[in-house]
Structures are given as structure tokens and as C-alpha cells.
Amino acid sequence: PGTGSGSLIPCAAGTYQPDIGKAACIPAAVGHYVPSMGSARVMRCAAGTYQPNTGRSACILASIGHFVPGRGASSQLTCPNYQTTSALGATACRVMTTPERFGALTAYVTDKGPGSVLRQFVVAARTAFLGNDIAGARRNLDEAKSTARSESGHSLTPGQANKIVKDANAVLVW
């Protein structure tokens, strides 16, 4: 494929030409790749990988918290709420463990929460849970929800407050 002074020039990685003697190389389409130069065929990205661009020589592994269920994907999908993946290149999500849900809630309130009060309740709830004090964990999560509701429209937007309450309720399902 490709010609120059009478000799064939192989297509570069990321491109291919299935017809012998044709001059133009074809870039791999989105969701596909061509791993090496001189290829006569294009490959579909495997499940767990995707490729959003044309003319590429490899696919991209789905990142943590994302998945690609089938072959030939041009994008990765985000796991639903309270689900995640354990490794790169996942083809499906799994339900988060309770400690993971606490971790997600703690990270969110650290980023969005009003001062240290909300964080203290969430951290105290996690600590109680890890110490098998389920009643203490519930009590502190209830306080975190109450604080989020009272801060709605002040230091938290209503959407942020609702997310904290929803996430705290999800953590309570253990």
C-alpha cells in the first residue's frame, strides 16, 4: 500500500490497506486499531478497552470506576452510583463494599462539605463502622445528613446537600 518510485511502502501502524497494490492507507476507525505497520486488516478493540480516535495503533484500557462491556467501543461507560471496578480494563462494574462507600462519601464531603463539622461526622461514622459499632455509625451518618440538610442553600448547593444525604443513605445499607 502506498507507492513511491515503483516500490510499495507499507502502511504505518494505525492504518491498513486490504487491497494489494492500492496506494492509499485507511486509518483505523474509532473503536478499532491497527497494531503494526504493513497490516492488511483492522482490529476491533476488545471488551474492557476503547478508542475514541481514528488512526490509532492501540486501544485504551477502561479506567477505574468505568467499564466497556463489548468489543469495538469508542468510549468507556461510568459505573452506576455505588458501583466501581477493581482494575483497569473492566467489562462490568461491581457493587461497592461498605468501606468503599464510606471512602467515596468522605472524599466528597472533604471536597464539598462545609468546614470540618460534616467531615467529622462522616469520619466518626466510618471509624464506628470499622470498630463494629453499627449504632454509632448510624448516629453519626444521621448527624451528617442533618448537617447537610441545614447547610443546603448556604455553604452547600441543594444538589450537593442532596448527594450527601443520598450517599449517606447508601452507606447505611449494610
Question: What would you say this structure looks like, in words?
Answer:
There is one protein chain. This protein is α+β, with helices and mostly antiparallel strands and 174 residues long. The protein contains four helices and twelve strands; from the N terminus they run ββββββββββββαααα. A two-stranded antiparallel sheet has the order 1-2. The N and C termini lie far apart (61 Å). 30% of the residues are buried. The mean pLDDT is 86.
Can you summarize the main beta sheet? Answer: 2 strands, antiparallel
Percentage beta strand:
5-15%
N- to C-terminal distance: 61 Å
SSE class: alpha+beta
The count of DSSP E runs of length 2 or more, i.e. the number of strands, is 12
- What integer value in Å does the Rg equal? 25 Å
Topology as a string of helices (H) and strands (E): EEEEEEEEEEEEHHHH
Largest sheet, order of strands side by side?
A: 1-2
Task: Tell me the helix content.
Answer: 25-40%
Shape descriptor reads elongated
**Count of alpha and pi helical runs:** 4
Low-confidence stretches: none
Give the rounded overall mean pLDDT: 86
